[in-house]
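[Meeting: bench + compute handoff]

Bench side (C.D.) handed over the final construct sequence. Compute side (W.E.) agreed to return the predicted structure before the next meeting so the bench team could plan truncations. Sequence as handed over:
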Amino acid sequence: MNTELTDLVLENEKLLYSIIHKYFPNYPNKEDLLQVGSIGLLKAYQNFDPTKGAKLTTYAYPYIYGEMKKYVREDRGIKVSRELSILNLKLDRVSLMLSQSLHREPTVSELAQYLGVTEFDIMEARSATSPIHSIDEPINQDGKEMTLHDTIADTTHRADIDLLLTLRSELKKLSLNEQQLIERRYMEDMTQTETAKSMGMTQVQVSRSENKVLSKLRTRMMS
């Protein structure tokens, strides 16, 4: 990495860490996320056109988030399923027991403390079996979610799930063309040029449409 790119990463470390803390607060290997987030930043830098009027940090946000989410998804895929299954069985029993004693559903923190595991372990186990908790699958499939930046704004897990369900609802309201564009860009990791070619559009049209759709989703999610 040359000096210019090294300086770019150092100058934007605050942005990288803010995305890590906002979206992956319980992920144990934050330095790994910093590294893959830097890759996203450099990809954005290579494609960035300052004449469009957007700030580099704004333009780079989805690139950074996308690389981090992809890494977490792949890392999750190599977890030993047997261990997750065993933990899920324990969670079912403990949840029932604590619900009876507390007269309410136990929190993730309470479950983690009782079982002697981390909150991330709890969420990892639940997401392995519950489609509602998964944000790694493409749109247009029953019980599955889509990943985009600026969609998970609350620090509590229950609020996160509510927001994801709202996001799924909003995504379904998009036109078929808009859904295909978002799927290619954020699930298939296509560049704007690749997306344009696959959809019979120009790169400029893809860029404008993408910005319009993301702005629409942000507005609806914040309303």
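W.E. noted at the follow-up: The chain is about 70% helix and 0% strand. C.D. will use this when planning the next construct.
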